[in-house]
Specification:
Order of helices and strands: HEEHHHHHEHHHHHHHHHEHHHH
Shape: globular
Helix content: 55-70%
Distance between the termini: 53 Å
Number of strands: 4
Oligomer: single chain
Strand order of the largest sheet: 1-2
Number of helices: 19
Largest sheet: 2 strands, antiparallel
Structural class: mainly alpha
Number of domains: 2
Length: 409
């Protein structure tokens, strides 16, 4: 069916109206954007940095307005109040206006690969061996029933403990820095993103949306906007490095090494680059099928599943980045708040491993921060290991789960 003339005219009129609304914010002679605080939130929501900027007044305004809108939507969702979506025609008009103002190109959708089957992995073989050992005291009929369910990925247990030792990962990152220093890459702490002087001097944006001034980095991470609003620079090079790896092979230490090399020893930007690449598609409905996700080695501790590989990695490095930038107190507070928020929004079902990643990331980031601050003073920072890390044993919980399954069957 062809669109009616009335519809075409209406769309053209809306497009013209959007263009007129955008023109009022442009100073064509000077090539700058004027009065960014008056740009509508729906337009600012499409803003993306083209390159690294330590200070970005327009990005700050976009962040505050969009974060305020997201917070209100989350609150309404929590209270089970209806969220009125923006009319599609108005959304398209806002995007057209943003494209005109900020000069960004079309959206680049990620490449989707196949979702890696847990049943084809080494983890599956190890879990199956444990299951067979636990089933040794059960009848052959029960064994067959349970193994059949396991092979269909219907027996999953999520770990309650840390999947790895934060001190061990911290030491591995230290070693990367020391190894690369021998090759001529000098480590630098890096300059942290803060709210721009121009934006803070106005203060109107803050007063309108927040009672106090929160950390810019925390605000960015809370909205999942770092890839758009805190561009580091070598994101695409790092993404290509990930795509060049074998499936399920890349470990955190080597991802950090490559980012560290690309950022020439700037640790802050190294961590930000990783966070941007890992988190950019966090809202994608098939994020577990991204080709870059397929390359990551599962780091969560689960029985019968790889778990949310995408989520585990980006939560881990998001908190490493935040803790490195902001320090111990804020990182631990943020990690606990994130865990509580996830618990509430998931209907109190909980995501134990994701929450563990937040806390582990906070610890690793603080260790890395202390390591670099000590170096700047000419001191040596060493990690003190008080006890040997003990991985979680699923045997008892598995036996209990099998009995419950057989009882229901």
């Amino acid at each position: 069916m062809k669109p009616s003339i009335a519809i075409i005219i209406a769309v053209m009129a809306l497009s013209h109206e959007a263009s007129a609304q955008c023109d009022q914010f442009k100073n064509i002679d000077q090539g700058i954007i004027e009065r960014p605080s008056e740009i509508p939130p729906e337009v600012l929501s499409f803003y993306r940095q083209k390159s690294f900027k330590l200070e970005d007044p327009i990005g700050d305004m976009a962040l505050v307005k969009v974060s305020s809108s997201n917070f209100n939507d989350a609150l309404r969702s929590l209270l089970k109040l209806k969220i009125k979506p923006l009319d599609k025609s108005k959304l398209n008009a806002a995007k057209e206006c943003a494209s005109d103002l900020f000069k960004f190109g079309p959206d680049i959708l990620p490449d989707l690969g196949h979702s890696h089957l847990y049943t084809q992995s080494e983890a599956f073989e190890n879990d199956r061996k444990l299951l067979i050992e636990v089933l040794s005291e059960f009848s052959d009929v029960d064994k067959k029933k349970v193994l059949n369910l396991f092979d269909k990925s219907e027996i999953v247990i999520e770990g309650r403990k840390d999947p790895f030792d934060a001190k061990d990962l911290g030491q591995k990152l230290f070693n990367v820095i020391l190894e690369e220093e021998k090759k001529g890459v000098t480590p630098r702490f890096g300059e942290i993103h803060r709210w721009s002087k121009e934006f803070k001097s106005q203060r109107s944006g803050f007063k309108e949306h927040f009672k106090s001034i929160p950390s810019k980095i925390l605000t960015v991470l809370s909205g999942g906007k770092s890839a758009a609003l805190l561009k580091a620079g070598p994101e695409e090079e790092l993404r290509q490095f990930i795509l060049d790896q074998d499936d399920l092979s890349l470990v955190p230490k080597e991802l950090f090494r490559k980012s560290y090399q690309l950022n020439q020893g700037n640790i802050y930007l190294s961590l930000l680059t990783i966070e941007n690449v890992l988190s950019e598609y966090w809202l994608h409905p098939k994020r577990h099928q991204l080709k870059q996700t397929n390359k990551l080695k599962p780091i969560g501790k689960l029985f019968g599943s790889h778990g949310d590989v995408f989520g585990h990695w980006y939560h881990l490095f998001g908190m490493i980045y935040y803790a490195y930038a902001e320090g111990a107190f804020m990182a631990k507070l943020s990690g606990k708040t994130e865990a509580l928020g996830s618990l509430v929004l998931s209907g109190f079902k909980g995501e134990a491993q994701e929450n563990r990643m937040n806390m582990l990331g906070a610890e690793v980031g603080v260790l890395l921060r202390k390591f670099m601050l000590a170096r700047e003073k000419g001191e040596i920072f060493e990690i003190k290991v008080h006890k040997k890390f003990q991985p979680e044993d699923f045997e008892k919980r598995l036996t209990k789960k099998i009995k419950n399954i057989l009882r229901k069957k």
